[in-house]
Amino acid sequence: MTPKRRIVVAAAAVAFALAARGQEEAEPKQPPFVHPLFGDNAVMQRDIAFPVWGWTTSGAKVTVSFVGKTAEAVAGDDGKWMAKLGPFPAGGPHTMTITGPQTLELKNVMTGDVWLCSGQSNMQMGIGACTNGEEEIAAANYPNIRLFSVPRSTSFEPIDTIEQVWDVCTPETASQKGWGGFTAAGYYFGRHLHENLKIPIGLVHASWGGTIIEAWTSIDALRAVDELKEKAEWFDNVDRAIKSGEYDYEKIMTAYWAVNDAGLRNGWAFDDFDDSSWEALKVPATWQNAGLTDFDGMVWFRTTLEAPEGVRWETVRLHLGPIDDADITWVNGVEVGALSQWNVPRVYEIPPGIVRPGRNTIAVRVWDGGWQGGIYGKPEQLKLEIPGSKSVPLAGMWKYKVLASKRQLPRAPRSQLKNPNIPSVLYNAMISPLLPFAIKGAIWYQGESNAGAPKQYRTMLPTMIADWRARFGVGEFPFFVVQLANFTRVVDQPVQEGWSGLREAQLLTAENDPNVGLAVIIDVGEADDIHPKNKQDVGLRLALAARGIAYKEKIEYSGPVLRAMTIEGRAIRLTFDHTGGGLVAKGGGDLKGFAIAGVDKEWRHATAIIDGDTIMVMSDDVPKPAHVRYAWANNPVCNLYNGAGLPASPFRTDREE
After folding, report:
1. How does the average pLDDT of the chain come out, rounded?
2. Final residue of a domain: which of 528, 549, 570?
3. Are residues 574 and 544 in the same domain?
4. 431 plus 485 within the same structural domain
5. Number of neighbouring beta carbons within 10 Å of residue 388
6. Is pLDDT above 60 for 21?
7. Does 202 lie in the same domain as 325?
8. Whole domain around residue 607: which residue ranges?
9. 541-595 confidence digits (pLDDT tens)
10. Confidence band for 312, pLDDT divided at 50, 70 and 90
11. pLDDT (tens digit per residue) in 160-198
12. C-alpha pair distances (Å), 121 with each of 185, 209, 356
């Protein structure tokens, strides 16, 4: 390898390291006089005494006045002060005045119910990315729904505060919070409650796509459970390596790419490389739509452009549109940018001296970890922007070469410095700063990233719930879980493990805790999309569970839940709770989704017949039945509902302890 090419390999490794880190780790900053949770447009929890806090000079007195009541506090040795006010009924708008070394007047403050909305990408998914997104955003004019989005960040130490403001729910604010807007599941949940309860609703959104539940749980909670101590050890080992300086991610990635990227070794980024044998592909387009079907992995792209003579080169910008998932980009062999966000347009500033009049070469290495991939924006987004001159368009046919599929490449080491999938780092950076804000309860949409360990999730989910309840300090607050949706292709076999065990862990948590509810969405998923677009039904079912459990309304808020089974000769009779309005085979016809087995666990498709509020399950192939399963597959074909139109949770009678 020539010295020039060796430099490019190292530079690319550094760029990949920076791209892989994603969001910045939270940095400690001078804490504010008043925590940002207390600001204009905020919602304070009704009907309880709620804390208000901030930081100032040690020993300083602070007075908080709100709705005719006043509370005083004195800052401690660490400068933190905290006052409690209330309870107050739902209402507003009010003004909150805070006086001390500084004076603040917070306007348009409401009292109502505050809900924490957390989880991974399906909670993060915005309104605009969902069904009827444009219409829903246009109609999102609810001045008494307030939105507070916690910035995504990681930390190995608990953080006290964040920088954020409350937004009044309008079409503008609902569409300006990332992936299509404010959390769709949270918004539809809050909208339903607001419309039915006629009170202000505050939604505090803290989620991050692709994250594991242990990242959202405090290290103390993990240490306290024998089964989870290995998670705490994982955190400790990474934390120790980083703090000691033993961890050098750039060195790790240099070694990884030196072995695994033949393109870097062979100079594919350079203008003198001969790409005449490469195939051509239309850009922009996802490569699945341009001829490279059913492929996930790494692809190199190359094109040339003719830059005009006699122009200024101080601030040349390369526009490539969005790239799915991650890229590193070179111009004439010099790395000019890298990013690992699939939906963000690339705009890379090119320093003077790299682009030259005449022929120039652009090389882009694209990594796609799943679903669509490639340089996929609009043609007008691809251009070289030159000051004082007409932009050079870049859309058209590009050369490309497949480096390796996802399966062929060893998994790249992920930077532990900014990795959101280390135990406790999201709790520290995104939950700890909220404590002890007064909330009504929480909704949770997560589990896909823990589906490989469903038995452990039986412990993880209750542990996190108990951890949050203890730390928010508002008692055993209600907690509502979205069960995993149906996903992936439909299979022929009677049962399939996969995501079924994780759904069972979520169901068990709800069964074992009277203040936990379950929103079953086994009917709203999409076989080819892990992010189902129908978040309206998700929010509705969460809100029904809240109305039934948190607000004690006399409504049917759950689909049928298995209560008991009895063996009756060659059949098994199943009895259910939550049959409101009677058991129903949705769509008419026969019940679908049932399987039956004897003690041998040889599963067969079963006939299931509704008999009042029970179901009889049988099969001619199983003369001595012992077990039944329902909807036990990643994407089951199933249709058991109750008269209220709510689907039954998947279940099995042969639960493992």
Report:
1. 92
2. 549
3. no
4. yes
5. 8
6. no
7. no
8. 561-650
9. 999 999 999 999 999 999 999 999 999 999 999 999 999 999 999 998 999 999 9
10. low
11. 999 999 999 999 999 876 777 899 999 999 999 999 999
12. 11, 4, 43
Give me the amino acid identity at 290.
Answer: A
Number of domains in the chain: 3
First to last CA, the chain: 58
- In sequence order, what E strands does 455-515 have? 479-482
- Check whether 397 has a pLDDT greater than 80: yes
403: phi then psi, degrees, rounded to nearest 5: -80, -55
Which CATH number do you get for residue 349? 2.60.120.260
Sign of CA dihedral 324, 297, 398, 309: positive
Q: Which helix (H) or strand (E) holds 275?
A: none
> Looking at the domain assignment, is residue 22 inside a domain?
no
Q: Are 131 and 187 in contact (CB under 8 A)?
A: no
What's the pLDDT score for residue 240?
Answer: 92
Choose among 60, 45, 59, 92: nearest CA to 434: 45
Query: Other C-beta atoms within 10 Å of 343: how many?
Result: 14
From the list 629, 615, 632, the residue with the least C-alpha distance to 568 is 615
pLDDT digits (tens, 9 = 90+) for 78-95: 999 999 999 999 999 999
Residue 100 CA to residue 102 CA, distance in Å, equals 5
Do 536 and 576 fall within a single domain? no
Q: Could you say which of 520, 549, 578 is where a domain stops?
A: 549
pLDDT for the residue 246: 81
Residue pair 123/186 in contact (Cβ under 8 Å)? The answer is: yes
> Which residues, 6 or more positions from 176, have their beta carbon under 8 angstroms from its beta carbon?
none
326 and 438 both lie in a single domain: no
**List of residues 6+ apart from 384 with CB closer than 8 A:** 305, 307, 316, 317, 318, 319, 355, 391, 392, 394
Per-residue b or e along 27-43, where b marks 16 or more CB atoms closer than 10 Å to that residue's CB? eeeebbbbbbbbbbbbb
In this prediction, residue 294 carries a pLDDT of 82
Kind and range of the H or E run holding 328: strand 326-331
